[in-house]
C-alpha cells in the first residue's frame, strides 16, 4: 500500500479499488409528495451489505414523510440544505438543520414522522441523503434510540486549496473522526472538489464501499469520468480510491464516500421492516397491527407534525 501523506492530495493508491458497477439514481416519488433519487434498494442494486437503501431526497413545502413505522434497521439522515423536523412515539422530537445528521435506531419498533421545515418563498427544496443500515441479528430487538450530530461538530480536512472533506465518520488526511453513526461500523465522508482537485482516500479492508455523486463530474482512478446522480459501487480489490476533478471541468463536484462493515446474516425486507426470516416479518406485521412487542405506544398516537402537515396539505389543495 502506498503511504498516504496527510498533507498531500497527490498520493495515489496502487492498486486502487476498481469500479464494480455504476448505478444511476433515477428520480421517483416516495412518501407524501416527496421526490427521491434512489440508488440502493432498487432492482439494479437491491442491497449492498450492510446498506439497505440510499435516497437522495428533495422535499418542497407540502411534501414529506408522515407517520410511518420501522423495525430492524437504522437510518442515517444527512441534511444538506434546508431543515427537517422529526417526531416519534417515544416522545423524541427535534429539527436537523443544514449540515446536521440524525441517527435513528429502529430496533424492536418505532413509528415516526419526518416533515421538512417550510422554506422562504424562493422555491428551494430541503435536500439531503438518507441511508438505511441493517442491524446486527443480536440487536434486532434492541430499544429504539435517536442521536444527532451537529454541523459544528464535524471536522473538515483540507488536502489542498481545491478540496474540502467533511469527515463525518472515518479517517481522511490526518483527521480521525470514527463516530458511532450506527451499531454497524460505517464511514461517511462528504467531499467538495473544485476543478484541479484530487484526493486518494484509504478504505477499510474487507468493507463494502461506494461513491455517490451529487453535483459536477468526477474522474475515478484517472480513468472513468462519472456525472452527478450516480452510485459508483467499488470492488474490494485495492487499498483505497483515487478521485479527481480535472482542470478542464467547469463545475465543482460534490460527492460522498461511504463504507460499511458487511455481515453474512440473512436479510428479509418488506418495506420499512427488516428481519432475518419471513416468519419474523409476519410477526412484525402482527405486532404492528396489534400494538405489541415494541409498538405498544402506537395505540392512540399521532404525531403533531404529521397532523400539521396534513392540515397544510388540505389547505393548499383547497387554494
Automatic annotation (TrEMBL):
GO terms for molecular function: metal ion binding. Residues 189-294 form the Pirin C-terminal domain. Transmembrane segments: none annotated. Binds 1 Fe cation per subunit. InterPro entries: Pirin, Pirin_C_dom, Pirin_N_dom, RmlC-like_jellyroll, RmlC_Cupin_sf. Residues 34-133 form the Pirin N-terminal domain. Fe cation binds at residues 68, 70, 112, 114. Keywords: Iron, Metal-binding. Its cofactor is Fe cation. Belongs to the pirin family. This is Pirin.
Amino acid at each position: 500500500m502506498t503511504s498516504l501523506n496527510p498533507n498531500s492530495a497527490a498520493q495515489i493508491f496502487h492498486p486502487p479499488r476498481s469500479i464494480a458497477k455504476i448505478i444511476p439514481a433515477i428520480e421517483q416519488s416516495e412518501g407524501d409528495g416527496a421526490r427521491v433519487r434512489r440508488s440502493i434498494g432498487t432492482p439494479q442494486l437491491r442491497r449492498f451489505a450492510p446498506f439497505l437503501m440510499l435516497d437522495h431526497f428533495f422535499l418542497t413545502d407540502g411534501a414529506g414523510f408522515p407517520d410511518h413505522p420501522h423495525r430492524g434497521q437504522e437510518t442515517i439522515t444527512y441534511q444538506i440544505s434546508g431543515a427537517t423536523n422529526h417526531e416519534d412515539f417515544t416522545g423524541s422530537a427535534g429539527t436537523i438543520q443544514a449540515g446536521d445528521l440524525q441517527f435513528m435506531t429502529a430496533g424492536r419498533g418505532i413509528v415516526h414522522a419526518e416533515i421538512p421545515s417550510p422554506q422562504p418563498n424562493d422555491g428551494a427544496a430541503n435536500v439531503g441523503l438518507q441511508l438505511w443500515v441493517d442491524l446486527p441479528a443480536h440487536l434486532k430487538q434492541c430499544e429504539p434510540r435517536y442521536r444527532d450530530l451537529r454541523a459544528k461538530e464535524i471536522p473538515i480536512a483540507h488536502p489542498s486549496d481545491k478540496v474540502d472533506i467533511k469527515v463525518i465518520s472515518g479517517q481522511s488526511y490526518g483527521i480521525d473522526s470514527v463516530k458511532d453513526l450506527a451499531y454497524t461500523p460505517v464511514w461517511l465522508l462528504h467531499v467538495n472538489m473544485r476543478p484541479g482537485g484530487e484526493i486518494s482516500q484509504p478504505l477499510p479492508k474487507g468493507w463494502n464501499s461506494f461513491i455517490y455523486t451529487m453535483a459536477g463530474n468526477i474522474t475515478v482512478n484517472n480513468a472513468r469520468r462519472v456525472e452527478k446522480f450516480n452510485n459508483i459501487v467499488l470492488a474490494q480489490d485495492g487499498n483505497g480510491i483515487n478521485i479527481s476533478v480535472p482542470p478542464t471541468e467547469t463545475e465543482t463536484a460534490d460527492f460522498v464516500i461511504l463504507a460499511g462493515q458487511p455481515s453474512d446474516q440473512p436479510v428479509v425486507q418488506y418495506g420499512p421492516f427488516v428481519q432475518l426470516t419471513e416468519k419474523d416479518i409476519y410477526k412484525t406485521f402482527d405486532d404492528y397491527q396489534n400494538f405489541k412487542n415494541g409498538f405498544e405506544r402506537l395505540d392512540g398516537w399521532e404525531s403533531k407534525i404529521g397532523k400539521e402537515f396534513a392540515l397544510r396539505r388540505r389547505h393548499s389543495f383547497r387554494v
